[in-house]
Amino acid sequence: MDVARLIYADSESSADLYYATRFFAPDPFLFLQDPSGQSHVVVSALEVDRARRTARADQIHEWGEIKTRWQTAHPEDPNPNTETLTAFWLQELGITTLRTPRDFPLLMADRLRAADIALQPESEPFWPQRAIKTAEEIAHIAVALAVTGLGMETGIDTIRQSTIDDEGALWLDGAPLTSERVRGEIHARLVREGASPRHTIVAGGTQGADPHEEGHGPLYAGQPIILDIFPRMETSGYWGDMTRTVCKGPPPKRLVAMWEAVQAAQEVAFELIRDQSSGAEVHQAVTDALTDAGFITGTDESGRQIGFFHGTGHGLGLEIHESPRIGARDQTLQNGHVVTVEPGLYYPDLGGVRLEDVVVVDEDGCRNLTRFPKFLEV
Questions:
Q1: Does 85 share its domain with 158?
Q2: 375 lies in a domain?
């Protein structure tokens, strides 16, 4: 007999809960997989009818039903809180031990332990099978990437339509073209396509030397502009993730060399990724390719990171970053993993270059789900 598993969260933010139930709800609800493998969902009266129609669970319960039984047993306390009701319900089921996610709420944990229910926090991932994507999940990710491509198209077209003034600044519609304007155009397109954009990166010039700088202010010709777009689809909950680096007008030779080195390093990764390949070996090969192209990783005179100083990729699915990782810490890639491949180069005096596609790991290699083209000059 297996140990029961319990999640208490909202499924808008908990990928583990949504994976188990396929039920989106903005407020916390309870999911239990009992020792026999039966699944239970406990929701409020507000959500119970929708849960009965759409949630993947063997049994749907409403908090009011449990509260009525509590009031019969404890007439002196007619309005117990959620934590007390949860402990009472689990005791009714005879459950004394639970596996929980590592981010399980502390108040709930304290109440369950006070009721002599032992908790065993699980290290990530709570559902290891989440890392191996089904054909249905891969299709959802492919749709998310197609929508991401529409956002990328809009962002790059906005840059393409701009003009260049005498000082190299980009202008559009009579005003300086800024990172904020490009980001706004991208977000508007994504929302129209049913996606939720978050923290989209449009980082021009030296701002791009910081991989997670979102970008702000005017954009200029002859400088790299990193566009990193990662929206979540409203209907499926799956994420897209794509990065391109472009330059308005002729790019300087150093930027061309960086861009070509990053593209070549990405191709190295594509060649090595397959079932049972070592993520650490893939990452090292990408690092070596960039080093051999003349781009050193380390720190500059001021102590800032330069070169290629982040991982090669990460899992993508119901979370923007999930297992497995492709980096210095080794993880074995498996058939069905969906991972990003995103080498980059960063130098504070010029900016950054990053290219990112998403691939499915197959037995004999990998399949690129990203269809948007790569080019530097616009």
A1: no
A2: no
